[in-house]
Design goal:
CATH architecture: Alpha-Beta Complex
Number of strands: 11
CATH class: Alpha Beta
Distance between the termini: 7 Å
InterPro entries: 4-PPantetheinyl_Trfase_dom, 4-PPantetheinyl_Trfase_dom_sf, AASDHPPT_N, P-Pant_transferase_sf
Strand order of the largest sheet: 4-5-1-11
Largest sheet: 4 strands, mixed
Number of helices: 7
Structural class: alpha+beta
Number of domains: 1
Order of helices and strands: HEHHHEEEEEHHHEEEEE
Oligomer: single chain
GO biological process, one term: lysine biosynthetic process via aminoadipic acid
Radius of gyration: 18 Å
Helix content: 25-40%
GO molecular function, one term: holo-[acyl-carrier-protein] synthase activity
Family: Belongs to the P-Pant transferase superfamily. Gsp/Sfp/HetI/AcpT family.
Pfam families: AASDHPPT_N, ACPS
CATH topology: Ribosomal Protein L22, Chain A
Shape: globular
């Protein structure tokens, strides 16, 4: 059970150098008692947002993502229950805890049956997970959304399989960066570009016309099995080393 995993070993501490990544498979949380727990801790506004989704599977994915986020954040605030947590949103819709005495930052992404949650302290963070889809016209998407430098690298991939992975590595890195910045579509996809994406530390270059900030970031990207690409963007801090711990909540 999800609740057993969370409360058996609560993540009660997170240091300034830590980023916790939680990976959830929604297929593992479909029993009535598990979903009832999630429903019991969502706010009224979250319930309304959930019901705005027409498809039952989309409603359930939202329910699990928000419920899991509340459980994880509440574990860091022992004086608060998951239902007590309150959120505020910036002008672009990025949520934050309020009040937030521990300076906790978080981000949530989902694709298919997988949900990815990133939690950091004292650092902005963004994350993205995408299910690989070979039926998409990735060349057309890259031409429209990517910087020309990224598009050119994509076209030089040796075969279609490599091109697909290259596309989704770039896509998730770019989405994680935009989400970490918290400015939504105000940051155009072609106003920055990534290089060294096959290395442990991909690098980003910001163009002159970009709305992205000039603060340093650290990035990571990896594939989960053969089906998903995951990426993380975390604000850099020269004084602290960064440790990323990935915890798969899959029973």
């Amino acid at each position: 059970m999800f609740s057993d995993l969370i409360f058996a070993k609560p993540a009660q501490n997170i240091g300034d150098q830590d980023v916790h990544l939680w990976l959830l498979d929604t297929r593992q949380y479909e029993e009535n008692h598990q979903l009832a727990l999630f429903r019991s801790i969502l706010s009224e506004s979250e319930h309304r947002r959930m019901l705005q989704f027409r498809k039952p599977e989309a409603q359930q994915r939202f329910l699990i993502a928000r419920g899991a986020l509340r459980l994880l954040l509440a574990a860091l605030h022992p004086s608060l229950s998951p239902a007590d947590l309150a959120f505020v949103f910036n002008d672009f819709g990025k949520p934050a805890l309020h009040p937030n005495p521990l300076n906790i930052h978080f981000n949530v992404s989902h694709s298919g049956n997988m949900i990815l949650i990133a939690i950091a302290r004292g650092r902005e963070c963004g994350t993205d997970i995408e299910k690989l889809d070979a039926s998409r016209n990735i060349r057309e998407l890259a031409a429209f959304y990517f910087h020309p430098h990224e598009h050119a690298l994509l076209l030089h991939a040796p075969d279609e399989a490599a091109q697909l992975k290259h596309f989704y590595a770039l896509w998730t890195l770019k989405e994680a960066f935009i989400k970490a910045e918290g400015k939504g579509m105000a940051i155009a996809g072609d106003s920055f570009y990534f290089s060294d994406i096959d290395s442990a530390h991909p690098q980003v270059t910001i163009t002159e016309n970009s709305q992205a900030s000039v603060q340093p970031w650290r990035f990571s990207q990896q594939f989960f099995g053969d089906d998903f690409s995951m990426a993380l963007a975390v604000a850099e801090n020269d004084e602290l080393e960064l440790s990323v711990m990935c915890k798969c909540l899959i029973v």
